[in-house]
Design brief:
The structure is a single chain. The protein has a 6-stranded antiparallel sheet. Strands 1-2 form a two-stranded antiparallel ribbon. The protein contains 6 helices and 8 strands, in the order αααββαβββαβαββ. It is elongated and about 65 Å long. Helix 1 packs across helix 3. It has 2 domains: 64 residues, Arc Repressor Mutant, subunit A, CATH 1.10.10.10; 171 residues, Chorismate lyase. It is α+β, with helices and mostly antiparallel strands and 261 residues long.
Length: 261
């Protein structure tokens, strides 16, 4: 099925943003120039721009114009209770996603109790051990986030023996290997300076630059904590969009959310 004209325009503008022809935080050409360039009607161009705005690529500011906001689409939730994985999201946006495993192994919770919201889950004197997987993610060759995922060994037996290629999409891996589907996530966001030289170098930013730290707890279809993750995101290419719904069919009360013992 062929794409509509406004979708063709939107896809072309996205490609130009990702190639750097339209720079982030710079203005797009005015609508009359886009009409002339693409040879379509004003209505078609307006609809394409509305689509790009809804996807988070651009923002329209009165008396200023239309600014390029980011080169990657916003995160979104599709269908009731279904969380769109990051891998699927990037594929949908036609962005070439690559993942590099920086390190993986086991770690004691007592060594990380002050990070990743561990103190919300474990007592301070715990001697429990977790599996960790630290990944760098790139979109079209550009690094944009580092994720450290912490997992419970009794829920993910043998995961450290898997080849690196299996860790491209973690949500898909959890479903395929362990029959666990992530149905709810709870995230806290903080704006923090990067004080670790290795992290700065890996993300391609300067030491001391601002990044977004996301601390996420993910719950499985058994209504139990399955993954605890920390993300360090480059803020100039990553947007956060949250939607609050009155649909309570998938809601979980606090006393139901317990990790596997």
């Amino acid at each position: 099925m062929s794409k509509t004209r406004y979708q063709q325009v939107a896809d072309d503008i996205i490609s130009k943003i990702q190639r750097g022809e339209f720079e982030i935080n710079k203005k797009l050409p005015p609508e009359n120039e886009l009409i002339e360039e693409y040879g379509f009607s004003s209505g078609t161009i307006k609809r394409a721009l509305s689509l790009l705005a809804s996807q988070g690529y651009i923002t329209r500011i009165q008396s200023v114009g239309t600014l390029v906001k980011q080169a990657f689409p916003k995160r979104e939730i599709i269908e009731r209770g279904e969380i769109l994985s990051h891998t699927k999201l990037m594929a949908k946006a036609k962005i070439k996603l690559s993942t590099m495993i920086l390190s993986k192994g086991k770690i004691r919770v007592s060594d990380i109790i002050s990070t990743a919201r561990m103190s919300e889950i474990f007592p301070p004197d715990t001697d429990e051990e977790l599996i960790y997987i630290r990944r760098l993610r790139k979109g079209d060759g550009q690094p944009y986030t580092i994720q450290t995922a912490y997992l419970f060994p009794n829920q993910t037996p043998g995961i450290l023996d898997l080849p690196d290629a299996e860790f491209m999409g973690l949500f898909e891996l959890y479903k395929k290997r362990f029959f666990k589907e992530i149905v709810r996530v709870d995230e806290k966001l903080r704006v923090t300076p990067i004080l670790d030289g290795e992290t700065a170098d890996t993300l391609g930013i300067e030491l001391g630059d601002i990044a977004i730290t996301r601390e996420r707890i993910s719950y499985s279809n058994e209504n139990r904590i399955f993954e605890i993750s920390v993300f360090t995101d480059r803020p100039e290419i990553y947007q956060y969009h949250y939607s609050i719904s009155s649909d309570t069919t998938k809601a979980l009360s606090q006393n139901q959310l317990n990790r596997v013992e």
